[in-house]
Structures are given as C-alpha cells and as structure tokens.
Amino acid sequence: MLTVNDVKVMVTPRHKPVSEKRAWSIGVQSVWVPFYMATNAAGLTEIDPESLAHPVEIAYGKDGLPRFTEDGRPVMRVNKTLSGQVRTARENYEAQLREFVHNIQGEMPDAFKAQVDRIVAVLTPAPAPVSSDTPVQ
Prior knowledge:
- There is one protein chain.
- The protein is mostly helical and 137 residues long.
- The protein has one domain.
- It contains 5 helices and 4 strands.
- The strands form 2 sheets. It has a two-stranded antiparallel ribbon with strand order 1-2. Strands 3-4 form a two-stranded antiparallel sheet.
- The model has no long low-confidence stretch (mean pLDDT 91).
C-alpha cells in the first residue's frame, strides 16, 4: 500500500530525463532492466537473461519484414517479454493509485471533499453580471 510519504517522493521532481528508448515513458536501459534484474535477484520474477540483455529490438510488420521510418531508420521496440512485464507493473501501479485514493477518501473524508468542492467551484461558471439596462424577470 502506498503511504503519503511514498506519494510525496513520486510527485517531487528529482532527476533530469535521459534520452533512451522508453516503455510507459520510463527509460528501458536506465530503469526497467536494472529493476527487473533486481526482481530476478530477489526471486520475484524469472525474466530470461536474453530479454534483459537485449531489451530493445527491431520491430517487424505483419508481413514479417523489418519496419523502417520514412527517413530509412529501423523502427525499434521493447521486446515482448519486457514489454509484458512493464504492462503488469503499470496495471499494478494504477491499482495502487486507485487504492490510495480510496484510502484517503476513507481516512480524510473532509479534506478530500474540500478538494472536490474546490474543483467543482472552478468548473462552475460564474453568473453573468446583471446590467441596469437588462430587465429583471
């Protein structure tokens, strides 16, 4: 379960972005590969070394031929094994975020309702000013 401090760390900017292939907007070589090496070491996953050693590969079309961009460069993609693991992590992360919201709604209902009311106030259009020339109905 995510705590308030866990979320505080996630929403505080700390690092400059690195230019590399990304999966779920997160660097493959700088984050996902080391993360899954650690999960393998901890016995949490069993991702084959080949998938971690070659996380990015040439993308192929339905015809079985390599795909290329308009300027002739090959299209690269994250391999299926790693891509599937990232998808699972993303789905679990989304579930944790929803659980966090649910917990805060239960533990701090007044503070959460105050946030909802603030948003509703921003979305509610202000009434048009009444000029003295306009007849009142």
